[in-house]
């Protein structure tokens, strides 16, 4: 069951990253600059999450609340309002706010991965989830890019549900 938790974390992560690239390409145009901005934001948030996770002694269920809240924030803020910002403000939005959910997802990943008895299995499940997320990106052609956020939220909620079952069952 722990494998499922990491599978859904991977699925949500890759969908979120590819959606971020799509959104930021609307803010700056489709260039290598967009990829650099999104990847820089992702790496910044992963680093920050790992630095904070080093100070945390165990997983906390409440970490899902700010994760879902930041995903909803990204869904609710209209693209037109971001496009109305100056270049510098759009850049700050894209480097700090767009990848902010990755910070919370990184905290969840790091604090649960630390407790793994078979880390290779969990890492493999996470990679398979990321591959599935890559395939699910094509659902944006049916659902629309903005509505992919519901799939991302669902992936993280499934992850939460599986993790709560583990905690309740005393396996964590």
Describe this structure in words.
The structure is a single chain. The chain is an all-alpha fold and 172 residues long. The chain contains nine helices and no strands. It has helices spanning 2-28, 32-53, 64-76, 79-83, 87-97, 100-113, 119-136, 140-143, 148-168. The radius of gyration is 16 Å and the shape is globular.
- What gap, in angstroms, lies between the N and C termini? 11 Å
Q: Helix and strand string, N-terminal first?
A: HHHHHHHHH
Structural class from helices and strands? mainly alpha
Task: Estimate percent helicity.
Answer: over 70%
Rg from alpha-carbon coordinates: 16 Å
Specify the overall morphology: globular
Largest sheet: none
* Number of DSSP strand runs: 0
| Unreliable residue stretches | none
pLDDT average, as an integer?
A: 91
Counting DSSP H or I runs of 4 or more residues, the number of helices is 9
Please tell me the total number of domains: 1
**Fraction in beta strands:** under 5%
Short description:
This protein is mainly alpha-helical and 172 residues long. It has helices at 2-28, 32-53, 64-76, 79-83, 87-97, 100-113, 119-136, 140-143, 148-168.
Keywords for this entry:
172 residues; mainly alpha; 9 helices; 78% helix; globular
Q: Which helices and strands appear, and what pairs or packs with what?
A:
Blueprint: H1 2-28, H2 32-53, H3 64-76, H4 79-83, H5 87-97, H6 100-113, H7 119-136, H8 140-143, H9 148-168
Helix pairs in contact: 1-2, 1-6, 1-7, 1-9, 2-5, 2-6, 3-6, 3-9
